[in-house]
């Protein structure tokens, strides 16, 4: 039987810039029935763990399953009654357990079809309720929180304001502009607006199948869980998932591993209650129209449909803030850099919030360079940066916000290679520019950026 998530909540004052964020309490189950998972599936996972470890305490088994002592004891009694495990001793951590001959045989048979041997999954219904409770749309986005989140970037106030409005809408947001203008950096800071955290399950169970959700490459655990917390859930920062050119239609559905016998969640499911960035939109292996057509229903209704390998479909929440970062010009459907047609402009109207992240002004370029120097421990010379700005103009290079960081980084690399102290001067900047813009010494010599150089 599936047990719905408790309606009680925990108030976390860390979220929403001082406003309380409501999260499901997720109390630890006290019985097998309260896990919401059929007992036979729990037994199968448990015997695989016992057989793998060969000898472990009941407490260690409970830790591996994400279950408390009372549920673990109930489960051990069932395994002992079935003569699948035996007690080999007693310690402060409880019974010592080992698989019987029958237990090892059953574990081997189970592992041949399904190798999942981790925390017990949570029921799909519990997962659905948890996402609804923790949805970004449940809170209010305050201008001050937005300004603080983007305070480390050098942006026009109007850009920050437009991004804030887009975040508050909960609707898809497009950050567009030429390459090197910081679109991805803007997207990376969006989760900071929300604060707080969310509970993510290790796995969910759907019709007897297991879908692994928690991904250590995506989900970052924070803090200690509340007392009596259901350890099948991990308290994490709000998810931030980035998918680039590798994104295909197949990666937007469940990934079934025929060897392991269970599924991996697609990126949008891992991003639930957080932010999902489609980076370099328009450069994916699929056509942009295919991607948006795949998401018409999820974006409109907040529900996605995933398919098990047998063909059965099931619904899951689609509770993500989708951000498209692209060099596409939405007014023309052309790439800002290459001038090639990417998509139909009618299709782009499905994305209601579009914010241009453009080149830096001269003043902004100076400030970005100053911050890059400070972060690298280098001295900042306004006159030298002025001469660099002049050089970029001569080369018909726009003031991309990425240039200061890349130039400073190259200066550091050169010093590390030569075993010398990094120093920002006319010669080191000239050499960095030669490498960065593929220039020859004849075009840009070491002394060309010195004062009064001809």
Automatic annotation (TrEMBL):
Residues 169-352 form the AAA+ ATPase domain. SUPFAM superfamilies: P-loop containing nucleoside triphosphate hydrolases (SSF52540). SMART domains: AAA (SM00382). It comes from the Bacteria. This is Predicted ATPase with chaperone activity, associated with Flp pilus assembly.
